[in-house]
Each structure stands twice: as structure tokens, then as C-alpha cells.
């Protein structure tokens, strides 16, 4: 492997280490020992849940190809996963508000373990069932755990600013360090030790079982609106009304869908972008570099959110704009850098430039996750939190299914251009969210001042 990749990884490692070690009191949030115990318990569970997810990622496509399925059949399996997340996952995830968030988290573990077991079968129908179960589990992963955390945080009387600390640490570990370690561990099991491509799925099932045991033994239950009169249809209607009647919630959902849709599209596009002429690139090492970039972003986010005078709605406009520019790089280099028709070889000069841009995009992803979690905790009503969060994922899953179905229909530059436009739109909507939020806050302050003034005024005497 070329020294270029080691230099990029090493430079990022030094920057992340420097950021973490150079934190001052201004960059840290002072908390209580009780909160630290609660936070650490959640971080252990969340890290195990993400490890169970990340262990499977590098070998899903490879396992299907080893079973003899072609690109079209594998594509349909992936579409089934996202479609399941949109349909069944939305229903199951929404039940968390009524049936309990802890119960939903346990359901995630059981569902994903069953999905891992199906990977032992070469039968297409069994693998399709596994993808459907995996889609349901994904919806629970990205809604139930966050909903449980937010509700439990405020139920225990912790300060709202402390929540951002848990979010940033969860992304730093779960979407950064754990992803890197899981990728290396999966490679060790499947390739170095020779256990084959099913081994990472077995390891994931074991880790999920450990996490489930911790949840069952140490988590308490919490609910959204658990009233008997509210069935699932009523919950959906209430969530739809909340989104339609509150511009802030609608804007937040649109921002999330635009960014995550671009992010998942990038997952499919970065390999052909860096190796258009079948250049030999170390996919696993580049993936680890991207995850390290995400850790850098979450470290930056923790510093930003530790400063109470900085508003998430403000700095995220810059983050979305930067991410939009980074995904324009494949188009820019396509016009400015002469292309080579030589097959194979090492990464091109154009690919090297794009790699730096993609690392910057991943850093933006690292900032995005804890920041969007913070905004969701502020704007989404507690009684329908899981339901609304799963509603947000419906347009995302539709978009990804369309992209997967048409991934070969458009040139790669068109796809990147579309993602860049979506990210610029997210920046514009983020600006609108900040304006609406400040306007609402100003009106609330005026109303409170008016009530205080009326209370302090002396009654008229006749």
C-alpha cells in the first residue's frame, strides 16, 4: 500500500489527538458524578449496538457475491432493506412511544440477531428475510435509543446542555472509533483467521446479545404517550399534524432527509469516484480514514456545543455549505484535471484531490450527527418522538431506493452534482430554521414580559 494513504491517516490521527488533548475548561462541560455514570452506561450500550452494525457492513455485498448472486440480485436485496426500513420499520419504531423505548431497544437486538443468523443460508428468500429484518432493526437503531436517552435524561433532572456531551461522545465512539475497530476486527475474522465472510455476522450477534443483557439489567422503561385511547393510526396522524403545523419540525425533517440522502448516496459513489479506471485502492484502509475524519468532526462538534453562546442552527449552515462544496470536487476535477485511460495502477492525482475532499465531507458528517440530535431534542415533542423521527426517515429511504435502482443510469458526476444541490438546499433550510426559531423565541419572551408586567401592575380601585 502506498505511503500516501499512511500519510493521510497519520495526519488525521495527529489532528484528532491534538484536538482531544488540547481541550480547555471552555471546551468541557462540568457535570455531576451521577450524570457521568448514566452517560457512561449509555455509551457502553450504544457502542455495542453500533459495533453490531459496523461489523456487518464490510462483508454484506461480498457474502452475497460469494453465494453466487449477481449485481442486480444483490441490488434488490439492498433495496429490500431500505424499503423494509421505510414500511415495517416505521411502524415498529413508532410503537416505541406507546409500548416503551427500552422494549424497542431490546427488539432491535433480537431483530438484528435474527438477521445475522439468516446470513448462514445461501437461499435467496432467506437472505431477503434477513434484509427485511435488518431494515426494521435500522429504524429502531436510529430512533429508539435516542428517544430513550432524551426522555431518561430529563426524567432524571439533568441539565439540557449535558445532553450534547452524550451526543458528541456517542458519535465519537460509535460512528468513529468503534467503526474503525469493527472494520479491522471483521477483516481479522474473515480473512486473517480464515473463518470466512459469515464470521463477522456471528460476532455481531454475540456483541448485540451482550448489549441486550446490559439493557435488560440496567435500563428503566420510559414512554412517549402511552394512553390506551391512542392506537398506531392515531399516533401517525398526531405525528403528521405536528410536522404540518410546526414549521420548525418540518424544516428539521427536510434538512435531515437532504443530508442523510446525500450521505448514503456518497457511500455508493466514493469507490467508483476514486478508481474510475479500476485503480488499485485499499478500500478497508480508506474506510478507516473516513471514520477517523468523522471522529475529527465529532470532536469539533463537542467543542462547538460546549459554548453556550454558539447556536447549533448557526454553525450548521456553514457545515452544510462546506459539505456541498466537497461533493462538487469530482465534477471540478473531471473538467480541470486530464483523465487517464490507463487501466489499473495507483490512485490518480484527481483521485488524491477527491480523497481530501471526501475526508472533509466525512468530518462534516461527524459534526452533523450530534448537532442534529441536539436540534431534535429541542424541537420534537416528547410524546411522539420515536414516531416523528421514523417519519423523517420515510423520504430518506424512498430517495435511497431510487438511487440504488438507477445507480447505473446516470454519470457519476450527475449524481455528485445532485447531492451537492441537496446539501446547498439543506444550508438554506437551516438558515430558515434559525430565523423561525429566533422569531418564536422572541415572541415567547415578549409574551412572558407582558404577563409579568400585568401581574406587577396594581389593580384599579373604584
Set out the fold topology.
Elements lengths: L2 H19 L11 H22 L5 H7 L4 H29 L1 H18 L5 H18 L2 H12 L4 H33 L6 H20 L13 H14 L1 H28 L8 H24 L5 H15 L2 H8 L12 H31 L5 H21 L6 H45 L6
Helix pairs in contact: 1-12, 2-8, 2-9, 4-5, 4-6, 4-16, 5-6, 5-7, 5-9, 8-12, 8-15, 10-11, 11-15, 11-16, 11-17, 12-15, 13-15, 13-17, 14-15
Structure summarized in a few sentences:
The chain has 17 helices and no strands.
What does this structure look like?
Helix 4 (71-99) runs antiparallel to helix 5 and helix 8 (160-192) packs across helix 15. The N and C termini lie far apart (92 Å). The protein has helices spanning 3-21, 33-54, 60-66, 71-99, 101-118, 124-141, 144-155, 160-192, 199-218, 232-245, 247-274, 283-306, 312-326, 329-336, 349-379, 385-405, 412-456. The mean pLDDT is 85. The protein is mostly helical and 462 residues long.
Largest sheet: none
Structural class: mainly alpha
Q: What is the typical, i.e. mean, pLDDT? A: 85
CA(first)-CA(last) distance = 92 Å
**How are helices and strands ordered from N to C?**
HHHHHHHHHHHHHHHHH
Shape: globular
What is the helix tally? 17
| Strand segment tally | 0
Which percent range fits the helix content?
Answer: over 70%
Point out poorly predicted stretches. Answer: none
Q: Nearest-angstrom radius of gyration?
A: 23 Å
What portion of the residues fall into strands of 2 or more residues? Answer: under 5%
